[in-house]
Amino acid sequence: MRLRLAALAACVAFPAFAFAQQAPIQLPGTIGVTAYDTGSGGYNQAVAIGNALKQNLNVNLRILPGRNDVARQAPLRDKRVPLSYHGVGSYFSQEGVFEFAARDWGPQPVRVLLLNNSDQLLTIITARDANIRTLQDLRGKRVAWVAGAPALNANVEALMAAVGLTWNDVQRVQFGGYGQSMQGIINGQADAGWASSIAGPLYQLEASPRGLHYPPLPASDTKAWAWLRENAPWFVQANGRDGAGLSAERPVHSTAYPYPILIAYADADEALVYNFTRAMLTYFKDYETAAPGNAGWALARQRFDWAMPYHPGAIRALREAGAWKPEHDAHNEALIRRQGVMIEAWRRYTANAPENAEAFKAGWMKARAEALRAANLPVVFQE
Fold this sequence. Notes:
CATH class of the largest domain: Alpha Beta
Helix content: 25-40%
Number of domains: 2
Structural class: alpha/beta
CATH superfamily of the largest domain: Periplasmic binding protein-like II
Largest sheet: 5 strands, mixed
């Protein structure tokens, strides 16, 4: 396999990463990755990163767009590509829930290379004229529910539950897709739904007669955040400054989660993961402003207390960069143990599982919950 070598001089330009005295970055001439669909923020970021790798290392990043979580992850599972610019669906795959509760999936041994923690919000948005000032004000309002998008609906359900609401407390309005749900809010068919603050439809909503509002969920709401940490640990506190109606002068304190999430599987080649992580850190300035949200890949924005474990190759690069500390090891090892509990529970369950798809999923969710409780670990997704 032909390797591309980065000159040592390229590393000297980034002394903060302490890479100048190391061997050159070594990567294959072509690397396949999956990403979100063409035109999405995640896809555009991958393209920008690929351009930086081509410019500095003469490495071609072959990007395979995927329209949903399964489409993004199947090539990774099947060893057709080593990496994926994924989303929160990678966390759901770790847990073996939603689409990943199907017979051909189950809990996946995923590992993080880097997280993008940008200034966007990922939260419940509302039409300003609906007078929903807080999440509690959703009671009795029309909330979008997207068919075939259980992970998206789980986000809405989690934020409502954090403030004591359920779907029974709101008017659930069903839409056939995410885009339709946003247009439904703009057109007056619904009052609230799930969105990223940098999503195109939010700029349309902001400019429409209805207007745009972000109900806040500040850190001072300790009860709500305690609930989320226990029951929806993929969420993080965010000071939203990027997106429709947001700015550094007009931020909103609410929720987000890393997006994209650069992942590999646990058995991915450690040298490849190490060198790819180094490359993204070393050449960050070359793609930082090349696509919206790319600033979130900065070393200073990495979170080592999140809900998915890091790959050993990435840990090595992050440790050399001075970011990964010994105290991060215990959390990472605990997350790997959690994955092991679920993977073993899946192995035992599938040895004698029912054939019917619905019965299979229900039985798995029960077996999963029992295994996690027996290990004194949070269930998160109840059976």
